[in-house]
Amino acid sequence: MRSLFDRRERAALQRRIARLTPDAPRRWGRMTAHQMVCHLTDAVEGAFDADAEAPGTGALSRQPLKWLVLHVLRWPRGTMQSPERLTRRRPTEWHSDVAALRDAVERLAARDPMAPWPASGVFGRLSREEWGALLRTHIDHHLRQFGV
What we know:
This protein is mainly alpha-helical. The chain has five helices and no strands.
């Protein structure tokens, strides 16, 4: 399965992140490229968050739907909330915000596999492998949104 923990997958995502520009036009949705970078940094940092929100209990937290969404299905375009609600982090300086995303990805990849993994507010309890698939798919989704 494709995962952020796979060295080749991660390197490919990192190359795509490096090609982003702050003025990249979006293909769908309302976020700017800069807002998207901050949104993804928050998402990756969420895998470190021991105080994460309560685990999701909706349909996406149950198998086999969770597995399909994490590993098979392409995520729908432009169906999410407003950009302001999708991120805690606010854009500051482009290069430092991109560096923060790239660093968060590498820190996650280096995380102890035996460390406790927090639950997701949408997907419920997630294993290390599920976090790797979720974040790879999430990053890929938004990079496609901006054509990289």
